[in-house]
Amino acid sequence: MSIEWTAAREAAWQAGRSTACAAEVVPLAEADGRTLAEPLLALTDLPAFPTSSIDGWAVRGAGPWRPVGRVLAGGTAEPLSADNTCVEIATGAMVPDGADALIRVEDSTRDASGLVSGQPRPVPDWRMPGEEATKGEELLPVGTPVDPAVVGMAATCGYDAVRVTPAVRAALLVFGDELLTSGAPGDGRVRDSLGPQVPAWLRRCGARITPDAAVGPVEDTLDAHVDAIRQAMRTADLVCTTGGTMRGPVDHLHPAIAALGGEYVIDTVAVRPGFPMLLARLPGPDGRARLLAGLPGNPQSAVIALVTLVQPFLAGRHGRSLPRPARVTTTAAVHGRRGDTHLALAALDPDRGTATPVGHVGSAMLRGLANADGFLVVAPHTEAAAGDALPFLPLPLLAGERPARPAGGE
To answer: Are strands 374-378 and 389-394 parallel, antiparallel or unpaired?
Structure first.
């Protein structure tokens, strides 16, 4: 029996949380894409010492000032102990004890005898200890996705390594004797479009997948399906399959799950497109459970299964919160799908907070997906008119990616 769409996302997220593994410590260079498993605390005041924001002079007393030295970034500043003296100072350098002010080089002059004159600006040109953070302060909480900015923050604080949730290794199995892996479609066969794109979506959802972890097309027999899934579980925590999620004459996924002793977490979702999706728990070769996500064979339906089941599962597995749709205004009417949730491809205009449905949105089509930023969510038994506020679920993005296309463009 189909599960309601929002309930399916919650169940997938809970499945991820229930299979989470112990955290591990990794070097900063390996932390990108992981999730903080403990709060990131300031190991020292930030800055740790008074720091110059400018190139110029650190001065004491009234001017003009007699230069008595220089302090560069990375050096230890000697105190300024005499009035009417100064030291040349570089951006990022420690401000010496005894300095009353900093004067920018462009605001200063030197006379023939070498004395420095100038006027400090009203706002001090140095950063004081603890201005950004104080020692022991929580900078980022548990569950924060680690991106390059987080890595940089950790390095600034003095971390060489951080405690993060383990990487989730994913494998992809493409089912379908009708699929071509090269060349143009024809003579009853179609080009596989999921094998090339699903690994990239999995990376955007937070999984680790290597080029050799994508296998297919797998022969349309029960034995071939069972063997391929069993092999994938040797190295993967999450096995994604494409196609075979119905119960047609050559759909062997359900019998393969039964043969492997699996149990369903979710078996079909009340959403259109994409309803014949599934999430199953399988016993792994080492006794630890693996998860199998069955994605429909139609391309748009497969991506809807990814954002419905795989993205929430991986969020839960990483200890992150369940991604929640934002609300935007639709610029055009979007019809409902009776008792099912309708996910309608749309292009987002983040500046206006609007989304415009795109064309070419059949479940087997990719043109609409290529021109969209995500999905407008139309609840069961409802219709949406232009100007209505609707939930909007964005397509998964890598850190730093943002919707770039104007709304409505195809």
So the answer is: antiparallel
